[in-house]
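HUMAN: You are asked to prepare a plain-text protein record giving the amino acid sequence and the backbone structure tokens, both parts labelled.

ASSISTANT:
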Amino acid sequence: MVPVFLRVRPRARRPGAPDAELGPAGRHGRAEKSREGRAGRMSRNWTEEQKDAIRARGGTLLVSAAAGSGKTAVLVQRVLERLTDPVRPTDADRLLVVTFTRAAAAEMSGRIESEIARMLEKDPENAHLRRQQLLLPRAHISTIDSFCADLVRQNFYRLGVAPDFRVLDDSEDTVLRSDAADQALREFYERGDAAFYEFVESFSSGRDDAGVARTVNRLYDFVRSHPFPRRWMKEKAELYGAGRPAGKTVWGRTLLAFARDAADYCISVTRDSLARAAEDEKIAAAYSDAYRSDLAGLNGLAEAVSAGDWDRAGAAARNFAFQKLRPLRGYGGSPLKNR
């Protein structure tokens, strides 16, 4: 899903402009021409869902669609419908259209410009269309980060930001992150905090701290995708519950549930294998002891997991290993052995 957002900002009526409630008669025939142009553009075979997305008014609209489903075309049509609405037209410089890539923003702006030019060829005396053509370069059709940068530039004096600021590029971001991680690690090592050493042991390879830095960077990238990252971090940290048994935490219960499902599956397969081995005396003699040993270990693991005993379940998992099957000669092509 690639969402593209459209918001129309209200604008005060210009002095001398016809009232929006006057309708076609109050627009001296312009509404009739606009309606004809709109009908021509709507002659494309839009689906009902696309028509709904184009024509919906009066509230927030969220459209979800797969790649290649015509999202850009629908949004371009929606913009054109707003610009040429016969009752309540919107000026192009009052639009805010944000996308995720510069290419998408350029494509959308180009399509809108081309369509307005095409309509002017059919109706060169249309003053409203000529006005929209002039205002279009001032429309906010850009990436999300470009729009935010424009807001900061316009309000730098309120934000305490230098007016000549620029957006950090990816290479600079990588260097700064690496430097920040190195500095943070040095400071924590100097403190000698036991919890920090435990964290390092959990995520480093033993040779260096590259794994720790990667983990922190991945967490940072994930957290900043949330609207309130600090609050999200605080809420998730509380779920770990200092002093709470691991098996009683949210993540502990999730892992135990997964371990229980895995143990149940292995128990089912082992029991089935034991039953099939019993069908042949030689296979039973070669395999049954190993299967019974596996089954006992798996049952012990399942019991510990079901009881929510984190330490016992961890010990059972660490100490368990499937038994090696004894070699069985003379059954190379046996269907029973292959089963």
Summary: Strands lie at 5-8, 95-99, 140-143. Residues 248-338 form one domain. Confidence is low (pLDDT under 50) at residues 1-42.
